[in-house]
Amino acid sequence: MLFNPRTYDPAQFDEPTRRLLRATVDWFESRGKKALIDTYVDRTWYSDFLEFAAREGLFAEFLTPSAADPEKRWDTARIAELNEILGFYGLGYWYTWQVTILGLGPVWQSENEAVRARAARLLTEGHVMAFGLSERSHGADIYSTDMILTPDGEGGFTATGSKYYIGNGNVAGLVSVFGRRSDVEGPEGYVFFAADSRHEAYHLVKNVVNAQMYVSEFRLEGYPVRAEDVLHTGKAAFDAALNTVNVGKFNLCTASVGICEHAMYEAVTHAHNRVLYGKRVTDFPHVRRELTDAYARLIAMKLFADRAVDYFRTASPEDRRYLLFNPMTKMKVTTEGEKVIDLMWDVIAAKGFEADTYFDKAAKDIRGLPKLEGTVHVNLALILKFMANYLFAPADYAPVPRRLDAADDEFLFRQGPARGLGAIRFHDWRTAYDAHAHVPNVARFREQADGFCELLLKNAPSEAQQADLDFLLEIGQLFALIVYGQLVLEQAAETGLDADVLDQIFDALVRDFSAHATELHGKASTTEAQAAWALAHVRRPVADGERAARVWERVEALSGAYEMQP
């Protein structure tokens, strides 16, 4: 189930994809662990990786839709695979790829053929891209941009203003910049345009983070924006910003999976080969429990993310279910990644601080993913918009197949207006749970899920509680667990996941639901009826020592299974 460079064979993809994925793994492995660690510690810009990617045509092959080049495609399945690989070797390598994806979003959504052709050419030449949305004073609040475009009287503009927290802003061949016209008020004044970091009116201020990656602050001073540089205007520019994030923030989940996988090999190998008080560390019951929990949570992360890919690839104007599963991957999978690292860190303790480990880097970098492309709270609030239809108004959909075909996911660049989320319908979530009702902890969790529906029907949040975001976010956490479990179950069926591992995953979900129910019980605005419901739905997982022992054997087998080349 876990990515292992020693045995990696991406046989599910076509030959060009297999070659590029395998070449990427081989490049990192031949470069070795010392170089990986030294460049991280020294905060060395990863020009050697970008040279490799340019030489192989990696970004060009994976990030050019067929509309821009019929020989290439935008294929979410293989993009997710590369996210995982790059995360496995280091967040910085993933980050330069991720912000290139974001920078390309407004371009591939644009009808400006000249800029689209320029972007395709720049990718072929090995350039990276940047997404100029965030600002120091406003963050990603696109209603409040201070990048001002003043008409130049010749059909174009001059742009003046700053952008902040912009990855690749130091070298990007094309920067998609969001701003507003000085002469038009309201949404009609928004503009997305293409800039070049090499232009004399583009001023690089600094790297705002203390890291290997370059997360820039830049300023435009009278930057000439020709009519042919404009990507979107008015409400279309606003939609392009949100739809780009819809595409881009999905990538955070699979990067988190990759980081956790590499860290797990190190942690299990260290713990299993360390003797304390005359016993292997992994002979202590609490150590086995923590590592088994970390393993089960990591497998669940991977199952959910892989299944979400299928909904992205099957999306259409009539099927927008991906718009729920997207913030779920961003919020839930990445926070689970933090839990996985914390569980392993409790076991390996001081080893997790050592400079010559990957784990030391993973423990720092895993924290960033839940905080990029919208905080956990922002994404939870978004998830709540879907709750009523998801739980209570199922619709008929044809089953979504596993999507590993070599197809272009062109709908992602014609998503349309970024509204109407509350009207999106879903297939019946109970179907996946019914199919696995024989698994003890799936059945136990289903009791909690049904109870949550009863809470909303009989003791729904009042108008005042709906205005209390602290209370409402706890409701969102409980709802998110049901959605998470559904896709885990669907992917378990697709992959024939071992029933022991699935039961262990839902052991964790039962405990998580109980923890959030307890939190809801303690909220100041929770009513007596809601508090009584919360206590009544705290459940113990179904214990099975033999099952836990069998899952532990899988964890134990990770010891020595992979270590990066020196």
Quick overview:
The protein is an alpha+beta fold and 566 residues long.
The coarse silhouette is globular
Radius of gyration: 24 Å
Overall average residue pLDDT: 96
Could you name the ranges where pLDDT drops below 50 across 5 or more consecutive residues? Answer: none
* Helix/strand/pairing category: alpha+beta
Report how far apart the termini are.
25 Å
Number of strands: 10
Strand portion: 5-15%
The helix count comes to 21
Q: Level of helix content?
A: 40-55%
Reconstruct the topology from this structure.
Blueprint: H1 15-31, H2 33-41, H3 47-56, H4 58-63, H5 76-89, H6 91-109, H7 113-124, E1 129-132, E2 148-151, E3 157-167, E4 174-181, E5 190-195, E6 202-207, E7 215-225, E8 230-233, H8 235-248, H9 251-272, E9 275-276, E10 279-280, H10 285-313, H11 322-348, H12 359-365, H13 376-384, H14 387-392, H15 430-435, H16 440-458, H17 463-466, H18 469-495, H19 499-522, H20 528-536, H21 545-556
Parallel strand pairs: 1-4, 2-4
Antiparallel strand pairs: 2-3, 3-7, 4-5, 5-8, 6-7, 9-10
Helix pairs in contact: 1-5, 5-6, 5-9, 6-8, 9-10, 9-11, 10-11, 10-18, 10-19, 10-21, 11-13, 13-18, 16-19, 18-19, 19-20, 19-21
Family: Belongs to the acyl-CoA dehydrogenase family.
Organism: Kitasatospora aburaviensis
Domain Acyl-CoA dehydrogenase/oxidase C-terminal: 238-386
Give a structural overview.
The protein has 566 residues and is an alpha+beta fold. The protein has helices spanning 15-31, 33-41, 47-56, 58-63, 76-89, 91-109, 113-124, 235-248, 251-272, 285-313, 322-348, 359-365, 376-384, 387-392, 430-435, 440-458, 463-466, 469-495, 499-522, 528-536, 545-556; strands at residues 129-132, 148-151, 157-167, 174-181, 190-195, 202-207, 215-225, 230-233, 275-276, 279-280. The strands form two sheets. Strands 1, 2, 3, 4, 5, 6, 7 and 8 form an eight-stranded mixed beta sheet that branches. Strands 9-10 form a two-stranded antiparallel sheet. The chain is globular. The model has no long low-confidence stretch (mean pLDDT 96).
